[in-house]
Amino acid sequence: MKTFSIFLVLLFSSCLLNAQNNIDKAIQAFSEKFPQEKVYLLYDKGVYVAGDNLFFKAFVFDGFNRSKVSTNLNVELFNASKKLVHQQMIPLFEGEGNGSFALSDSLAEGVYYIRAYTQWMLNFDERYQYVQPFTLYNVTSKKKLVKDTLTQWTAEAFAESGTLVEGVTTKIAVRLKSDGVLPESWSGYVFEESKPAEKITTFNSLDRNVGVFFLVPEKSKKYKAVIQDNKGRKSTISLPAPVSSGVSLQVNSTPKAVFFSIRFKDVPAALNEYTIVGTINSTLVYRAKIKTDVNGAASSIPVDKLINGVLQLTLFDKNENVVAQRLCFIAPTELQLNEPSFAKIYLSKTTRGLNGFEILPDTSYQNYSLLVMDGATPNRFEEENLLSSFWLTGDLPGKIHAPAKYLGYDANSDALDVLMMTEKWQRFSWASILKGEYPEIKFKPSTYLGYSATVLGSGATTSRETINLIFYYKDSTTQVAQVETDSKGSFELNNLMFEDAVKVYYQINNRKGNTKDVKITFETHNKFLEYKGNFPAAGYILVNRTGKDPLPIEAERGFQTRNNFSQTEQKYKELVEIKVTAQKKNLTQELNEKLSSGMFRSMNETVFDFVNENETAISATNVLQWLQGRAAGVQIQMQGADYVATIRGTRAQLYLNEMAVDASTISTTPMSDIAMVKIIRGPMLGGAGGGGGGSILIYTRRGDSQKSTKTAPPSLNYSTLNGYAKPTIFPEPDYKEAIFKGIVKDTRDVLVWKPYLAIENNKPLNIRFYNNDNAGVIRVVIIGFSKEDDIPMFYNETLK
After folding, report:
1. Exposure string (b/e) for 13-47, b if CB count within 10 Å is 16 or more?
2. Helix or strand or coil: residue 576?
3. Which residues are paired to 329 by β-bridges?
4. Which candidate, 183, 34, 58, places its Cα nearest to that of 132?
5. Rounded to whole angstroms, what are the CA distances from 13 to 6, 276, 278, 301, 608?
6. How many angstroms separate the CA atoms of 46 and 43, rounded?
7. Which of 99, 196, 572, 747 has a CA positioned 20 to 30 A from the CA of residue 365?
8. By three-state DSSP, how is residue 355 classified?
9. What is the pTM of this model?
10. At a CB cut-off of 8 Å and minimum separation 6, what does 210 contact?
11. Helix 569-584 × helix 587-595 angle, to 10°
């Protein structure tokens, strides 16, 4: 867990601040009771064509840590008119999950939007939900996408800390925004309204977003600025009106320290005591008291005591009114970040040749996400990536052009500091939380799949009844559970985990006679709610298509790839089926299928095969002792005479052949009898009665190891519960197979997509894949988070 150092600094005062004043209490209550989640999605591609599958990896953060608040993420696909196209829910494990959308051939060319949010995020401003546009091309559409270079940009001026005080030299930022494309460069000059021909000062843009200049405003003067872009388009804007008295907060953020100074102009004596506080991610990191017995004050905050992120400095008067605010970013060129190490890299220069590399294990990390692309494709991660979302745009809901350019060793830190002058921290309002006005919590996060159920009977009470539930899984395996209704005839199911759908048959226990009149209605705990605001502009417009319109190179490559698959569609399906069958029939997976029923499987399981692997395990004293140190997050300890097993700090439920048992039963089971051990992190359907923290399942050897028995569905009323969306298998051609050798031109943008690469037993990760027809250069993206303190790993480099 990332931690902050808190400074209580005394400036120009004779006594230390009270350790818990109203400001401290207000921000502490908000931070503890209202964690702020944010979402980032990694996509397999930057541009899609009709008929594609869109693959994504989701990361959900609580501040700068992977979130433990939510275990579900809603992901929705909309067209530009906000019409819902697809909707799904994916499970989150340690704040991570993955999924896919099938983009139909019938989808019209245009801009589409992915929206992602948790239940908890519905309690707060919807602007902090994840909404991201992407372009989809379809040559059969009557209209085509083109860059919007016609929409005029708008400009606005911002005085540093919000106030332009007469006679005080003030830094002023100019910010450009547009629904289309921002100009490559622009410049401007400032004039006083009564003398438009006299230029007081001139300035140039620092990047597409911002420019900056200094001004000493004079009494009763009105100032304006003229901005002109590189294509000659102009706009005139008004500067903030100068005030005769007030406070100016000036900030200079450097790699070593954040320097700030405060200038006072004719401040009333009654308001001569001020407090300045610094917050990062709604956590107090700095506080100092200031007295205005001089015309100003200055100090600094050492950067080595802070973490990367947006720092909000707020100046309060003695009545706790906000008089000045300023954002800055802590050390954008020195990010706390790790990179992977490679043991071996084999890159073929041959078209469709076999490549490979090994990622050395890092004990600080449990898993990685991996994306390998053709190195000739545009580097979309230069403009926006995990780091810019994690540290910057996830907390600033406005549109920022190319935010990734503000972070890293070559970051444009001067432009970032000016950009911070144009933004406000809106996660909370000081005025509201100081009055005790906090967000109303209407939506509580559910723990994986949960349902509220009401039992309805014809003329008979259903309160305080025992209900038999039979979960009938898609593979015809069943699981029986009993629940008790409350005084209103209701009950709840929580911590369920299954894909697709499951039928739940039911009957009232021991009730005689016909039970066909008994009905149970289930209502999911997870809600999908309408997005009320407008989606952000994507910088494209639709125009009529003509017969000679060229396609963007990425779209052309995408259609070629789709055509390749279309030409060999049936053969490809057969190959995928063969591959899937082969995958299912590998020895460990086959053993898992034979021994475990559908109710005792999970998308987040680790299997140890004692039949085909781990031959030396027989020398261990018992299986619990053998497990220690072999499964990430699993701890086995002795308490008295008994073993206690925990998964990620939570006590694990133990099962022997899918029957709940205690540790003594497991520890006395001979190692020679054990066929398989399975670790399930989080809940599973078979654990409906408990064990939401995780389970350890032991299976013994028996005959052909066929455990589950296929059964016919019972003759009872039932309801269907929808589970998680099942991700599509990402296709990767294997050129050893003759079926793929008929592909005329391989133009795949994405060579490898692996959203979850588990690091097991401290072994290197071996990656193997085939080139497309553009051999020689690949782009590798690797993302991970350390298990202890969530330090991000981010690697985005080309390999030759």
Report:
1. eeeebeeeeebbebbeebbeebbbbbbbbbbbbbb
2. helix
3. 310
4. 58
5. 19, 13, 18, 18, 64
6. 7
7. 99
8. strand
9. 0.85
10. 173, 174, 175, 176, 415, 418, 419, 422
11. 70
